[in-house]
User: What shape does this take?
Amino acid sequence: MRDANESRAIQIEELTAGFGSFTAVRQVSLRIPPNKITAIIGPSGSGKSTLVRCLNRLHEEVRGAWMQGRVRLGGHDIFATDVDPVQLRRRVGMVFQRPNPFPTMSVAENVVAGLRLNRWGRPAGLDDRIEESLRRAALWEQVKDKLHVSGASLSGGQQQRLCIARALAVEPDVLLMDEPCSALDPVATFKIEELMKELAEDITIVIVTHNMQQAARVSDYTAFLMMGEDRAGELVEFGPTDRIFTNPSDKRTEDYITGRFG
Amino acid sequence: MIRQLSRPHRNRGDRIFQGWTWLMAATVLALIGLLLYELVLGALPAISRFGFGFLTGQTWNPVSGQFGALPAIYGTVVSSLLALAIAGPVGLLAAIYLAEFAPPWLDGPLSFLIELLATIPSVVFGLWGLYVLVPVLRSPIETTLHNTLGFLPLLGCTPLGLGMLAAVAILALMILPYVTAVARDMLRAVPDDQREAMLALGATRWEMAWKAVVPYARSGIVGGMMLALGRAVGETMAVTMLIGNRPEISACLFSPSYTLASQIANEFTEATTDMYVSVLIELGLILFAVTLILNGIARLLVWRVRSKS
Amino acid sequence: MTMNHYRWRKITNVLMVGTATLSATLAALALIAVLAFVLVKGVSALNADFFLRLPTPVGVPGGGVANAIVGSLIVVGLAALFAVPVGLGTGIYLSEFGDNRFGDLVRYLADVLAGVPSIVMGIFAYIIIVARQGHFSALSGSFALGMMMLPAIVRTTEEMLRMVPNTLREGALALGVPRWRAIVSVVLPAAAGGVITGIMLAIGRIAGETAPLLFTAFGNPYWNTNVNEPVATLPLTLFTYAISPYDDWQSKAWGTALVLVGLVLIANLIGRRVWRNVGAQK
Assistant: This one.
């Protein structure tokens, strides 16, 4: 059991990444524990998004992007030359800032898009997977009668949970969430936060948020990033969320969470 | 600090797919290259035989092997410029009306009509010109002009109906929707604060349109007119049907003339010798060069307006 | 003095707004006149034979343009068969992989191609197909028309694909989908409406082209479905009939014009309908 969990741990070692001549994050090292929720907070421009986008190597799809250092998932270097980023992304799912259901696909097709787009034809057992994923995303009851309407016709909160279901359907070990609630109202935000806590029982969640209350509410661990002298983001502090928010060891963290700047 | 640039990893499917799209793009490139190459190669015998004299020669006699392109060049330039001289102001005024004064409900139907007319084939305009426009032109219009103002060289020759004036009229009609559409888009792209600033100074609505909106969009409107000119220059069928098809230079508006495009259209299948074909290909090359230059200038002007707004 | 000047400005205003209104009205009326004549004169030339029969020799009444209708469909269909895959592929390349010098070059030359006069495209097809083969053919006509379609398809495909939000591409990539599959199954379907509209509009535009066919497809008074031989097409038949001295042929020219305009309009309306449906979905 212990070993199974360790395969979902992420070890970031001296990660530096950027675009062209711009460095977005510099020399970040931290260990994201398995089956926990880790929040990444910091002022805008501190490289939070770039950092998580390195974890599924989506960063390198942007033109001019580069990265160096090491990221290990379950002990294996994901930057190694023999790692196919396409395969990696099936283990490390992602939910984006704005809900992005595929507009030409129905609710059901959206959920299993990750499964179907990887092979020709229709794999067996898809219907079960649709229901299971939607249930895990706490969306089944609302959409079970409209599985064949366009995914774009759901409300914003439902669309975001559809995107979570879509990520869950490929059974990832890690779920990256890049400000998943910033486009949602408080009720929808609350539902997503409840959902995250349930999901953390068997997957590792990394959430980027600019909302400190959200980080405090949902996360087990918190990493605080800030811009260094040349605007490159650096890790200021990392630790259990309780401690970061009650007894930060770095003055800058304290200033930030008490709202003294930013 | 050494920066290791990561290259996006590409799996086999990605490489095949990207390779296929690249191949298609390269095909387009190759076809355009081939187009230029074949045109130049085809025109080469005529170019080396007649040299620059081809551009200034006025005699066109395939039987004796004498070829001069000046009548066709003259006819092309004059017919296009005159057509623009008519369609340009009318199109601009129509565009000002559409962009500044028209009630909103008119916008949909009129835009639709303009787009519709842009799709009507040139040969249909030619048919209409031949059987509707030319009879009206011959009499009363040309006959009256000739009888009253016939002492002017411009109107001195016998009105035949078919000729330069008919070609100019049909070309003007054909490029009118185009001039109007482009000018309207350019006027629409002018920010509202320009209008409000002018009105706030106590300008009338016309003064606002003419002194604030039109100058702001000036280079785009000129660009649109250059594009229209490019179309008129390359226009073939309607002109071939109406211009009278005679390779002569005449100051008279009623006299039959020729354009580059219509001369090619009429004579290509009749060209019996290799040199004759080569000469016609050279006409095509000249036509291509003229439209290329016009379109280049036009795009530059339009692009400047679009990037400004 | 000031008052007089103001009155003068007001008069100018009324006069010029009136002139602008008149210009728009005149332009609209002249163009409506073209359509009205085609409609009225065309309808009287139409009957069942017109659509079903071959042309009759001069002096023999009756007959139709059935061969030209079929010929036009063949020539335009083949042109699309050539231009759509190449144009689509190029558009995908430019949008998804084309932010480089090669892409800029293709983009620029496709713009140049869009400005090539149609008669020049006919010469090109003549040189590389007709002159080499030694005979006119439907195929060479299709090639000339296909070349004319290419730039429009390339441009709309690139524009429509670029309008698809990047979040959709990333959404698919984040699911562990290969890039090519993300483009084919997510990005292209999202842009399909606009792309199909662009293709239909391009087809509408070339369906009426005559000049490139003069010395490629050439025309043919008989039935022909062999793409390697000369074939009759609506625009060329219209041209031949229009400049003929016979009343019967001239009347058929109007009928042909109506059929041609009808086909072009149908292609346009289909294109616009697709676009509207997609627009409503979003």
